[in-house]
Amino acid sequence: MNARLGTHIESTDAQHPLIALDHEVAAQNYAPLPIVAERAEGAYIWDTAGRRYLDMMAAYSAVSFGHGHPRLVGALVDQARKLAITSRAMHSDQLAPFLAELTRVTGLPKALPMNTGAEAVETALKAARKWAHKVKGVADGAQEIIVFDNNFHGRTTTVISFSSHASYKAGFGPLTPGFKSVPFGDIEAVRAALTPNTAAVLFEPIQGEGGVVVPPAGFLKALRELCTQERVLMIADEIQTGMGRTGRNFACEHEGVLPDAYCLGKTLGGGLLPVSAFVSTAEVMDLFVPGSHGSTFGGYPLAARVGLEALRVMQEEGLVERSERLGKLLRERLAAAKHPMITDIRGRGLMVGVQLHTSVDAHEFVEGLAEIGIITKDTHRNTVRLSPPLVIGERELEWAVDRFLQLLDDMGGLPKAA
Ligand SMILES: *Cc1c(COP(=O)(O)O)cnc(C)c1O
């Protein structure tokens, strides 16, 4: 479709032989855009036909530093030649320096390295349950964790057990008990859900997959106070919001709040590897003893080296301030258009969600964007996410906004009821 747009890209590649092969041999647990990526650099991705796309989703923040960041690739290659994997059967010269920097940057003193985000969340859940049992004296098996409606914390069996989305859970029972879900941003609902058995509140400071939802001002601060008062762990899942994405090192900093624990991932791998971590207090972390938890790859030398370099790049290249400044520019430019098909613009820094009028299908809209050279995905609430690599140029960003608005004109028609 959309030859009428007169754009530099005629069509994406639904008939590509590699897409056909994918349908034959790959589990179809995703519905990707019909683009076959071949290489990438900075904020751009090229497909197998040499067509160039601006990456406006950065792999859900995994590519915050841009594709193929030279410093990060350099660290990866150098470390791969020296020492890549040891298992935790011995120490490596890379792990402790990485975790030392992670504790310094987060302000929390101890860290446990894992690989994927879901594993960091699993680690947090185990830590919270153990802490409630050992420190608060809650009977083992009675621990409760409060979460929020429309959360996204990953895809393991326990994590989907407290998802609000039926499709994440259907057919995967029996599910893990011990979770209570309350409306996001509602401090009174959290208070009402507390019991003597509550171990923790697990939350995203901005819900990403839930549609880029920012909680009401003061919520994080109130949650901090409530958790301290009630002796409950405040666990921030900053796997998507952390490391500069929202214009702060961590999104909790928008309200000057330090949680009892962070789950980190995505950006921590520098756009090159899956690297995640659970970071917390000594009181919590010292409950882990040999045999209580682990992962063959968690904290392997290659990951540790890249993770350390990622933390340094975040601080030394001004990407956090850049995210704040460009995010503001992006939201202002979109808002200034006063486009009738845009019903809401949410987010902080370069984590932006643009909610479209119900007469425009966000899913069709992102397919249209791909055809004109912009890659992103829609998310819940008919929302298009705009979360490019933090290294994106101002001109690229403005180009993307112009294209975005133009496509809305072309696809929009008039609202059904004006
Ligand atoms: C992506 C994400 C996860 C899961 O990370 P994976 O690496 O996909 O397992 C967890 N929490 C949040 C907030 C995320 O955005």
UniProtKB/TrEMBL annotation:
Gene3D superfamilies tied to this protein: Aspartate Aminotransferase, domain 1, Type I PLP-dependent aspartate aminotransferase-like (Major domain)
EC numbers, comma separated: 2.6.1.13
NCBIfam families per the UniProt record, alphabetical: Orn_aminotrans
The keyword rRNA-binding belongs to this UniProt entry's keyword annotation: no
Keyword list, A-Z: Aminotransferase, Pyridoxal phosphate, Transferase
Pathway as given in its UniProt record: Amino-acid biosynthesis; L-proline biosynthesis; L-glutamate 5-semialdehyde from L-ornithine: step 1/1
Identification of the protein by name: ornithine aminotransferase
Xref: InterPro entries: Aminotrans_3, Aminotrans_3_PPA_site, Class-III_PLP-dep_AT, Orn_aminotrans, PyrdxlP-dep_Trfase, PyrdxlP-dep_Trfase_major, PyrdxlP-dep_Trfase_small
Required co-factors: pyridoxal 5'-phosphate
GO molecular function: ornithine aminotransferase activity
Recorded family membership: Belongs to the class-III pyridoxal-phosphate-dependent aminotransferase family.
One protein family per Pfam: Aminotran_3
Keyword Transferase included in the entry's annotation: yes
PANTHER family attached to this UniProt entry: AMINOTRANSFERASE CLASS III (PTHR11986), ORNITHINE AMINOTRANSFERASE, MITOCHONDRIAL (PTHR11986:SF18)
Superkingdom of the organism of origin: Bacteria
